[in-house]
Specification:
Layout lengths: L1 H15 L10 E4 L3 E5 L4 E5 L5 E5 L2 E9 L9 E9 L2 E9 L5 E7 L5 E8 L6 E13 L9 E4 L2 E4 L4 E4 L1 E5 L6 E6 L6 E9 L2 E15 L4 E12 L2 H15 L9 E4 L12 H14 L7 E4 L4 E3 L2 E5 L9 H10 L3 E6 L3 E2 L23 E2 L3 E3 L5 H17 L4 E4 L34 H16 L4 E4 L7 H5 L6 E3 L8 H13 L9 E3 L11 H14 L3 E3 L8 H10 L8 E2 L10 E6 L6 E8 L6 E5 L14 E5 L4 E6 L3 E5 L3 E9 L5 E5 L10 E7 L4 E8 L5 E6 L5 E8 L1 H5 L3 E7 L2 E7 L4 E11 L3
Parallel strand pairs: 19-20, 19-31, 20-23, 23-27, 27-28, 28-29, 29-30
Antiparallel strand pairs: 1-2, 2-3, 3-4, 4-5, 5-10, 6-7, 7-8, 8-9, 9-18, 10-17, 11-12, 11-14, 13-16, 14-15, 15-18, 16-17, 21-22, 24-26, 25-26, 32-33, 33-34, 34-39, 35-38, 36-37, 36-39, 40-43, 41-42, 42-47, 43-46, 44-47, 45-46
Helix pairs in contact: 1-2, 5-6, 8-9, 9-10
Length: 776
């Protein structure tokens, strides 16, 4: 419930942007010319004469002309308003019904900043109606700027808005200078794969929503519910993207578990692939002793443990785990860690003995051949009852009998039975609809989602499910929503800077889904040579600030201390979602912002990145772009984490001169008339994961708090005094902490104060720094 409440709060904040009536009930009015619905955020009007609609937010008319593209019939038969109630909330809809039985709805929900468009399809004929794809709606969108001045973001990157675009699931169009713009995306993907298209037309941009079914069968006299498209205008398109993800999460009632951190064997060198039982045991002992106290939780075994390349019914007795997978899971678990394992649930080898008499368990082609996909294998048919029972048994063995409570399920697109499109995320034909399923009434997407539901049911609610990966076919982006805990959003990276840039790119484009719809996995934390220390710190800092899944794939006992320190300082995950501030200005954003808390507890972290591995670069950000607290009259002080030094007070742009493939991570606090805690040494986010309480007592001139301190890891609190008249007298810790062996010391250098706390064990330590204000 914790995460679901956060999702709801996020929607409220997005709704409140530029509108003071977010609690208003949705109202409808009717005249001779139009029907209008209004939820206090948006107003939508349907023209009764020409059948078009408009949408506005305040004074901004952002949909100039919307049309129902696939309306079956020249004129509507019935137009009326109806009350609606579903998982997205309560609201009012304009319902437009055509003689054919096709029904379109334009809906506004209370506190939801989108107009939602949905189509219900009907077959009035005596023959089965087959729908491959349908475009229910198009909208001419205007945000007050020419298309060439705007940028459009989709799954495949950032371009000028005057370029034609086709993107899976969503598109966002914004002014790169102000970030005001429009977000359009599909909320549901129950039976269709949602596509959003755009093209420049005269003074505006035409956005179309298309549902691709492959082969949707509607029997005579029957109806089929379509998917829901959401379109909204925002003064800040980042808030719009986040509100879009919140709306998806609310639609599917998504409640996420805590995000784990840990290790994957795949890229490790040495002992990569699946590793082996001897070295996994050594690694479990090492991590339990050295890393678990920092938030390290998972050891996941990757490909090559199984009986054969595409047979997961058992382990290979002549392979890396001759004693079986269960003893290894028990070894990992006994070390206080979670055992994880990789497999492809929907991609198998039909030639294996287990399938000798069960060739009908596979998806087929129209010529009768088994549907096979490159790399993924032969597609198990998730509409076949016996195939489902078989997979259920395999997964229960892995998760419930062997004890693996973290599963990485790869080759997902094979469950949809479409062509692999790896590694590029741009829209292409993939033969959607040419597969023959046991149950022909199921579409490709529906069969795939049924498969994912089975994986969850067989695994149990205590298993963390990581999907891998949408780069293989981007239809799995929307098709997986609500059914996995995490999703690999990029292609394989390896220990190379070019690969890391791919992970950062996809993690950035889809940042808004993270911690709302699922946990984004940008692929592994890579640190070893030939990556430099600067590059290792930059990648670790990006992962830590963005908050995305942090799974290292290095032989951790063999890492140099400075690179192993990146692992320690990037764990645990803070459970928040950082923001790429220049998302619509740079192909790969250079500035990320993470904020936590409110009032005197608020903490702001800015990550500044130079992704160029050849040239130095200057990166800057204006404080007003960060919406920092107004205290301190617009003057701030910072701490540069990797440089280990204070950033002197500043009021203008924050600038960083960065070496090639390097970063700076700066904690920022308002400069007040008394000492302020700027940051800590524990974590890259400098207090967000470790400072639980913080309080200034003006009468006693004390700064006190409570911090999560890691055992045998010196913990430093960084404090800045506004003038030299403030002198730090002493630091005290609680009596209980002293009895537990905790010690504390303090050192002041002019206006900077460093408090060092040491504890023999992980502990929440109470501390208090006393100050004296000397006469000036």
């Amino acid at each position: 419930m914790r995460v679901y409440l956060l999702i709801t709060t996020g929607l409220l904040l997005a709704c409140a942007e530029g509108c003071g009536q977010v609690n208003q009930e949705v109202k409808s009015t009717k005249s001779n010319e139009s029907i209008t619905i209004d939820n206090g955020i948006l107003s939508v009007s349907y023209n009764l004469k020409d059948g078009t609609f408009t949408a506005s937010r305040g004074e901004r008319l952002f949909i100039e002309k919307g049309t129902f593209q696939e309306a079956a019939g020249a004129k509507p038969e019935t137009i009326r308003t109806v009350r609606i109630k579903d998982t997205l909330g309560v609201g009012e809809a304009i319902r437009v019904e055509f003689p054919s039985g096709f029904i379109y709805t334009l809906a506004l929900y209370k506190r939801v900043p989108f107009v939602c468009v949905k189509l219900r399809m009907h077959n009035p004929t005596n023959d089965t109606l087959v729908i491959n794809k349908i475009t229910p709606v198009s909208a001419a969108v205007d945000v007050g700027k020419a298309a060439k001045e705007l940028r459009i973001l989709g799954c495949d990157g950032l371009t000028a808005a005057d370029e034609n675009r086709t993107s899976y699931m969503f598109l966002a169009m914004a002014d790169p200078a102000t970030r005001m713009g429009v977000v359009a995306g599909w909320l549901t993907h129950g039976r269709a794969s949602g596509i959003v298209l755009s093209r420049a037309i005269e003074s505006s941009v035409l956005i179309e929503g298309r549902s691709e079914y492959g082969k949707l069968l509607i029997e005579p006299g029957k109806t089929a519910e379509g998917e829901t498209l959401a379109v909204g205008y925002f003064d800040d398109a980042l808030a719009g993207l986040e509100a879009y993800a919140d709306a998806i999460a609310k639609t599917y009632k998504i409640e996420l578990p805590e995000i784990p951190s840990g290790y994957c064997t795949w890229y490790s060198k040495p002992y990569g692939g699946a590793s082996d039982e001897k070295h996994i045991g050594e690694l479990a002992d090492f991590c339990a002793k050295n890393l678990r106290k920092f938030g390290f939780e998972v050891l996941q075994i990757d490909d090559k443990w199984q009986l054969s390349r595409r047979d997961y019914t058992s382990y290979n007795s002549k392979g890396p785990y001759p004693n079986g997978m269960k003893p290894t899971a028990e070894k990992i678990t006994s070390a206080g860690l979670t055992a994880g394992i990789w497999f492809t649930p929907f991609g198998w080898d039909y030639k294996r003995p287990v399938f000798k008499d069960h060739q009908d368990w596979f998806v087929h082609k129209e010529d009768g051949q088994i549907y096979s996909v490159r790399w993924g294998g032969d597609c198990l048919d998730m509409t076949h009852p016996e195939a489902r029972k078989f997979l259920d048994t395999v997964i229960r063995r892995i998760t419930r009998q062997w004890g693996y409570k973290y599963i990485k399920i790869d080759g997902l697109w094979s469950g949809m039975a479409v062509k692999i499109l790896y590694p590029n995320p741009d829209y292409r034909d993939d033969n959607l609809g040419d597969a023959v399923f046991h149950n022909p009434a199921k579409t490709n997407v529906e069969a795939y989602r049924d498969g994912l539901k089975l994986v969850r049911e067989a695994s149990g609610d205590d298993v963390y499910i990581l999907g891998c990966n949408i780069a293989q076919n981007m239809r799995t982006l929307g098709g997986s929503i609500g059914l996995v805990d995490a999703m690999r959003v990029g292609s394989d990276i390896g220990a190379r800077w070019g690969g890391i840039l791919k992970g950062a790119s996809m993690g950035t484009r889809l940042y808004f889904l993270h911690n709302r719809v699922w946990h984004n996995d940008p692929d592994c934390l890579m640190l070893r040579d030939p990556l430099t220390l600067d590059q290792a710190r930059a990648w670790g800092s990006w992962v830590a600030i963005s908050g995305q899944l942090n799974i290292a794939s290095e032989w951790l006992p063999g890492l140099p201390a400075d690179k192993l320190d990146v692992v320690k300082r990037s764990m645990p995950n803070h459970g928040l979602c950082g923001r790429p501030m220049d998302l619509f200005a740079n192909t790969l954003p250079q500035v990320w912002h993470l904020t936590s808390g409110a009032g005197g507890q608020r903490k702001d972290i800015v990550g500044m990145f130079n992704w160029d591995d050849k040239n130095s670069n200057t990166v800057e950000i204006e404080p007003d772009k960060l919406d920092l607290p107004s205290e301190g009259n617009g003057t701030y002080v910072g701490f540069d984490y990797w440089a280990n030094k204070f950033v002197p007070p500043f009021s203008g742009a924050l600038k960083a001169e960065l070496r090639p493939s390097c970063c700076k991570v700066i904690a920022i606090r308002p400069l007040l008339e008394r000492p302020v805690l700027v940051g800590t040494s524990r974590h890259i986010t400098q207090g967000i994961v470790d400072v639980i309480e913080e309080e200034w007592n003006g009468r006693a001139n004390t700064l006190s708090g409570k911090s999560k301190v890691v055992g045998a890891d010196p913990y430093e609190i960084r404090i800045f005094a506004p003038t030299r008249v403030w002198q730090a007298l002493r630091v005290n810790i609680s009596e209980a902490d002293r009895r537990a062996g905790v010690t504390a010391g303090i050192q002041q250098d002019d206006q900077t104060i460093r408090v060092t706390i040491k504890s023999p064990d992980n502990r929440r330590v109470r501390w208090k720094v006393a100050f004296q204000k000397r006469p000036s």
